[in-house]
Amino acid sequence: MLLAVKHCQLCQRQTLLTFHHLIPRKMHRRSRFNKKYSKAELQQGVYLCRLCHKAIHKQYDEITLAQRFNTLELLLADDAIQRHLQWAAKQK
Hints:
three-stranded antiparallel beta sheet, 6 helices, alpha+beta
């Protein structure tokens, strides 16, 4: 899903954005996540530029994202994501 909004919620760059599910859709059918989260919680996400979205999925698999990085704050606190953000800030 593409959206022309103001800025990426990670790197703050102004560009076209994609929607990132904080709990990846691949995990939605697993009973562990169905029992723990409501349907609304499973649909929560953030708008990211393609660079940040690709970096997150390259760095972590879906189960890790669902268990350890299921909020914007947790993503922003991660060292690997911070390194990416420093690099992304230098991009046009």
